């Protein structure tokens, strides 16, 4: 399918521009309103699986400050080197989220600004991955596009692939894999226009 090949460049781009990206990203926690919604549903000392964790800043920083234990997964070794330097007491794994099988279940699964770099078919298959690492009550939060389609952004002059399913399909997949949708906001003005899904395994 057109542009799908660009999705395979994501790992290389975030490896090549890891330090530049982190400098641009900074530590402004615009996600806080949603992270707080997730945290309100979690037990004390929750274990969070962070898919596409990057350097751990600023999201893992905040979750750790709230008492969470983090297992971070990223495909960029350079990102993970920064994460290990920032938080050596946490667990950081180089892996492709599409093939992940940790034989472990978590209190929360987070895929923030990472899941939407996958192709539409890979996104569909990820719901089995979410379910594999979830137990009764596990909270799942991820960002998507607001409508079905593909978009090519830019990262330091390089084409950056994004894709999304229709909201109705995300809802169907969540239900199919045993998740109840708790909240979804498309292009949330309180979160820099992000489209966010919050669900729980039931």
From TrEMBL:
Annotated Gene3D superfamilies: Vaccinia Virus protein VP39
Residue ranges occupied by any Methyltransferase domain in the UniProt entry: 48-135
GO biological process: methylation
CDD domains reported for this sequence: AdoMet_MTases (cd02440)
Entry keyword set: Methyltransferase, Transferase
InterPro entries the UniProt entry points to: Methyltransf_25, SAM-dependent_MTases_sf
A matching Pfam family: Methyltransf_25
Gene Ontology molecular function terms on file: methyltransferase activity
Name listed for the protein in its UniProt record: Class I SAM-dependent methyltransferase
Source organism: Acinetobacter tibetensis
């Amino acid at each position: 399918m057109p542009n799908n090949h660009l999705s395979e460049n994501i790992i290389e781009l975030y490896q090549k521009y890891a330090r530049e990206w982190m400098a641009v990203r900074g530590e402004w926690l615009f996600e806080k309103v949603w992270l707080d919604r997730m945290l309100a549903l979690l037990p004390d000392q929750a274990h969070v699986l962070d898919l596409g964790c990057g350097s751990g800043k600023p999201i893992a920083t905040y979750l750790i400050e709230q008492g969470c234990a983090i297992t971070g997964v990223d495909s960029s070794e350079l990102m993970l080197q920064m994460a290990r330097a920032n938080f050596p007491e946490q667990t950081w794994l180089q892996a492709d989220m599409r093939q992940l099988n940790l034989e472990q279940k978590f209190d929360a699964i987070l895929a923030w600004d990472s899941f939407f770099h996958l192709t539409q078919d890979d996104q569909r298959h990820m719901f089995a991955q979410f379910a594999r690492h979830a137990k009764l009550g596990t909270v799942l939060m991820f960002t998507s596009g607001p409508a079905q389609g593909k978009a090519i952004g830019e990262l330091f002059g390089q084409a950056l692939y994004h894709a999304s399913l229709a909201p109705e399909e995300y809802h169907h997949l969540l239900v199919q894999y045993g998740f109840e949708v708790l909240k979804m906001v498309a292009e949330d003005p309180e979160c820099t226009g992000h489209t966010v899904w919050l669900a729980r395994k039931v």
